[in-house]
Design goal:
Length: 391
């Protein structure tokens, strides 16, 4: 490999959300950022920008828009135009602004649970009701309950459907066929699709990502897509994302709220790093995915051989492994507390993503292999502690 993903970098004392909010001695494998240094080209670009020495008000150049346009075309065959792109300083504030734009008090937003918990927060903090289309979990596989989805979408109060594509936390890369079924139901019942595609680049090699808006012109006009390089290239702290809105009427309405909320101003490092990531770091991303594939296999083999009580859900996308702990007969919040207190390992409880996921934990495997092996041993110790407490 050209890049050394085995290199361990000490992140303690850097104001890291992942490491510096975790108790001393506890290994953090929870929040979704990676323990890998970013691509060298991004580092060099940031150094060059810093050496210039002036950080005044910054405009977003044509190069930024071209980078997003070319990347979306090259990687996903998603053809977009510059005027469709609204840069923002984060996917979560973007989601909140979208809810504010297209919903009024008494309206509802549809989500597919278990799902990234900030969907729930972005909806509720704007005094809008959450409606859940729970995914079907059967024989270790997640699928969509289309009958329930349509029943929920029929409600005239349901204005939006927030799609997690690929899905966090279950690690599913939705097929074009599944997305098309969802899209047709939403068109039929006048529900606007918000497709969060922040994990679109992190697809395991046997799978592919379908941009929702690329499926048909009707879907494109009835959707808003959220993208960012931050997850894929480990630059979340630089705060840069995009809202893609082909429908001009939707775009005009949304832009008014984005302006009011003051979330369209990106910083110079976020702008330049996004350009650099998309224009000259694709080889780094491809090697990263290969490394994550090996980490995935390591986790699968370890649990198969050492932790038969647990079951790994097949990871198709993201670097967040979803692990079934149901055979332990313990709630996920209680189990994660035991892991942290007794095994010095911090992961996220499944119930964080919805009450129906209380038999799961989410584990971040985007870390050097030596750290991952340490984490797996700590996970094993946590399971042993649970079994000891039962006896």
């Amino acid at each position: 490999m050209k890049y050394n993903f085995d290199e361990i970098t000490n992140r303690i004392g850097t104001n890291s959300s992942k490491w510096d909010t975790t108790k001393a001695g506890v290994l953090p494998m929870w929040v979704a950022d990676m323990d890998f240094k970013v691509a060298p080209n991004i580092i060099e670009n940031i150094i060059d920008s810093a050496n210039h020495g002036i950080f005044g008000y910054t405009v977003i150049s044509d190069e930024y828009f071209e980078a997003e346009i070319n990347w979306s075309k090259r990687r996903f065959n998603f053809n977009i135009k510059k005027e469709w792109i609204e840069p923002t300083n984060g996917v979560i504030p973007s989601l909140s602004s979208i809810v504010q734009t297209f919903c009024e008090k008494g309206d509802k937003v549809l989500i597919q649970s278990p799902v990234y918990h900030y969907f729930d927060i972005a909806i509720k903090q704007n005094d809008i009701e959450v409606v859940r289309n729970n995914l079907i979990y059967e024989n270790g596989i997640y699928n969509i309950d289309f009958a329930d989805f349509e029943e929920k979408a029929k409600d005239e109060k349901v204005k939006l459907f927030i799609l997690c594509n690929p899905h966090n936390p279950v690690g599913k890369a939705w097929s074009k066929e599944d997305l098309a079924k969802l899209g047709k139901i939403c068109l039929k019942h006048n529900v606007l699709v918000i497709s969060d595609e922040i994990h679109r680049d992190l697809i395991m090699n046997k799978y592919s990502h379908t941009a929702f808006g690329s499926i048909s012109e009707d879907f494109l006009q009835n959707s808003i897509t959220l993208t960012s390089a931050t997850k894929s290239f480990n630059i979340a702290g630089l705060k840069a994302s995009n809202i893609i809105v082909a429908n001009q009427n939707l775009r005009v309405k949304l832009n008014k709220v984005l302006e009011r909320n003051e979330i369209k101003k990106l910083n110079i490092f976020g702008i330049n790093s996004t350009i650099t990531a998309y224009n000259s770091c694709e080889d780094w991303l491809n090697e990263l995915i290969s490394y994550l594939e090996e980490n995935k296999k390591l986790v699968e083999d370890f649990i198969k051989n050492e932790l038969k009580e647990l079951k790994v859900i097949n990871l198709e996308a993201t670097y967040l492994m979803w692990i079934d702990i149901s055979s332990l007969n313990i709630g996920s919040a209680e189990f994660t507390k035991i892991l942290e207190d007794e095994a010095n390992l911090r992961v996220i409880s499944g119930i964080t993503f919805g009450k129906e996921a209380d038999n799961f934990i989410r584990v971040n495997i985007a870390t050097p292999r030596e750290i991952l092996k340490d984490g797996l041993e700590r996970l094993k110790n946590g399971v042993l502690e649970v079994n000891r407490l039962k006896n």
